[in-house]
Amino acid sequence: MTEDVWTVGRLLTWTTDWLAGKGSDSPRLDAEVLLAHVRGCPRIALYTAFDDVVDEAGRTRFRGLVKRRGEGEPVAYLVGSREFFSLALAVSPA
User: Fold this and answer.
1) What distance in Å separates the CA atoms of residue 81 and residue 60, rounded to the nearest whole number?
2) Which residue of 24, 43, 57, 82 pairs with 36 in a disulfide if CB–CB is 3.0 to 4.6 A?
3) Is 3 part of any domain?
4) Which residues form the domain of 31?
5) Torsion angle, alpha carbons of 71, 43, 16, 26, to 10
């Protein structure tokens, strides 16, 4: 595997460290929720996809969300929903 290959696992590891450095209280959870949103899958599905390569379009979209999260924007605003007792509630800044 070359250094240029960004798998699900590599993205999660790098993003978790970066968000921790930005002061996130839950950097791993934030990274997982954002990547699952970009991939259009449940968060749990990421655990069986660690070796899957994320394409350039997915990485670009993910990068934009991660940057906004690092600037303090809530994850719920970024993905448009928040789970509450297994219910997905729509969320917006409004």
Assistant:
1) 21
2) 43
3) no
4) 8-90
5) 70
In a domain, 25, yes or no: yes
Q: What is the CATH number of the domain that holds 37?
A: 1.10.8.10
- Confidence (pLDDT) at 87: 67
Structural domains counted in the chain: 1
Tens digit of each residue's pLDDT (9 = 90 or more) over 38-62:
999 999 999 999 999 999 999 999 9
Angstrom distance (rounded) from CA 18 to CA 2: 21
What six digits make up the tokens of 11? 């993205």
- Could you tell me if residue 71 is inside a domain? yes
29 domain-assigned: yes
Separation of alpha carbons 60 and 45, rounded Å: 20
pLDDT score at 82:
72
Burial of 23 (0-12, 13-18, 19+ CB in 10 A): exposed
